[in-house]
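Can anyone check this?
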Amino acid sequence: MSARVLAEGRLDPRSILLRIVERIKGVGLLIVLVALQDPGAAGVYLFVAATTIGASLVEYARYRYRLTDEALEITAGVFTRRERRIPLDRIHDVGQEQTLLRRLLGVVTVTVETASSSGAEAKLDALAPEQARALREALARVTPHPEAPQAAPSKGALLHASTPGELLLLGFTDNRAGLLVIGGLVVFQELSEALGDRFREATDLGARVVAERARQAGPEGVLVALALGLLVLFLLGWTVSAGLTWAKFHGFVLRERDGVFHRRYGLLTTREQSLPRRYLQILRLEESPLRRLVRLVVLKADNAGSALDPKNAQKAGLDVFVPAARRAAAERLVARVFPSARPRPPWRPVAPTYWRRWTLRGALLGAAVAGAGLLALPHPAWGAALALPLLSGALGLLAWRQHGWSLDEGVLAVRWGVVGRYRGWMPVGRVQAARLRATPFDRLAGVRHLELIVIGGGKLRLRYLPAADADALLAGLGLRPAPNPRASSRAAASQPV
């Protein structure tokens, strides 16, 4: 029996102009170089233009898509004909993106992801909004699972909407602010080399003025000027970080309908994703030290696509389930995604060996630093190194008290952190494999390190588990423990569910 055709067509004609613009951007540097060498080389311009327009027309003419009640079929290729067939039961995420250029042209990009793909399995770029909506609705109707990707993210229960204030706080507490400052300094150096003498003369003049003012103010003035300069750089970095984060997640809205979560966000590039609950593998609630001060958390989710392509997921924000929320709101979302999960279950601690080893490492490091200082310095300042064991022991105690786990109602919960606080939840049915590891020192102390893996490679780790707890946890997850500690030390336990 032949498959029934539900929808078919080609890309929107405006995709031709989109391809031309994108290809011109790619050869723009070549055109500039040719123009600088020979302003009269009109033949090169004509060849580039003809090639760009011709390739765009051929690509548009040869691109076809067809949706049947069995699969999504795509035919494309300029010189080589490529055919792709994606069975409907493999599709787990149907997304939609619209960059600033596509918004100006009035087209959108539809992305189709599967549980085994790294990034988008197929990308229909670009369709008219009505055409994209019809395709997503047809996909929603024929997906053979009750939790099908829905086509109307504007419908359903509103679970969360991040406020502008929360997004700005998210950017201000981003740890990338320092990297932005360093990047600015690198750009400054590159400009000084590229622009040559004029740039150096201007900067030297400014430096001389600042130095003269500082000399007149004395040593205190130099320190104040240096502190103010560093403060300006860091404020600039934090401001840029806040602006980028705000633009990335602008207007974030999370809705849920029939077990499918819909996310929509973005200022310059708007994104929409439809993610069924059954494809969510791990939820992580992250509170970095700075975000704890402002009582802000980030809720991240591992699904097969984001775990297989973590760099692209982080760049597009696909790994972020909710970018910014208050702790209580995030905990309610955890219970909504995994109904049997408890945001604050009764935690079981790991072995005290955890903080004892922190203290031992600090003692060894302090002894090494103190010994080196005693040999190199005649004064007793090296004695400050003796505080390292105390500091290391205090941090280890915090880490040990925070690290714990719970297996309750079919959901494994793990928490960890030192100054920051982090929690993760993983349904037992999502676990695909476990790795149990123990060094000779671990075996002497009777502890094990456990790593649980889900589809796509996402992981939750538990360190310094008592051996009996590790075996009991593996049994509770339906996994066979390692046959003996010697095999465990060689990371031999990797058993399927």
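Reply from J.R.: I decoded it. Residues 4 and 111 are 23 Å apart (CA to CA).
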